[in-house]
């Protein structure tokens, strides 16, 4: 019964070659609805709702990624954010809410040290669900971590107590993913 879900996970790939458009059958409202459902339904510690996301498109997408590109000193480091600015249709920016994490730390001191990890785990789950869902909708995507640069570029647009965790850059695939290889990491049963 889990075969369709496992197939979706297996076919989700990193697609760097993107066109700044959506497939004809998909609207940005569809993307928003998908991301909203994922943020709502991804489990979080103590059902805290620590995950948040915003979707950047249009001039805001280009401006944020232009700022990221400009902020990187090394020319070689500018390549990926410049390609996101110029080739991706948009980006889902994933955040965790530090106020929620701090409240959990105060309310449950025995687990205080673990709550930042719990928040990161929940956010990672949302990232993977979103990536897989957008690919199922016909988009190509790749995950980036220009977290501090993106936060600086979004200053005043999102709450200061939101920590940027990742950026899922998406658009219509312009070329297929490269060959996929696997590490051998068998799952054993211990009785």
TrEMBL record:
Give me the Gene Ontology terms describing cellular component: cytoplasm; nucleus
Q: Which Gene3D superfamilies match?
A: NADH Oxidase (3.40.109.10)
The molecular function terms in GO held by this entry are: oxidoreductase activity
Cofactor(s) the record lists: FMN
Keywords assigned by UniProt, alphabetized: Cytoplasm, Nucleus, Oxidoreductase
- Protein's cellular compartments: Cytoplasm; Nucleus
Q: What is its main location?
A: cytoplasm
Q: Name one GO biological process term.
A: cellular response to oxidative stress
Q: Which family does it belong to?
A: Belongs to the nitroreductase family.
The record ties this protein, via PANTHER family, to: FATTY ACID REPRESSION MUTANT PROTEIN 2-RELATED
Q: Under which name does UniProt file this protein?
A: Nitroreductase
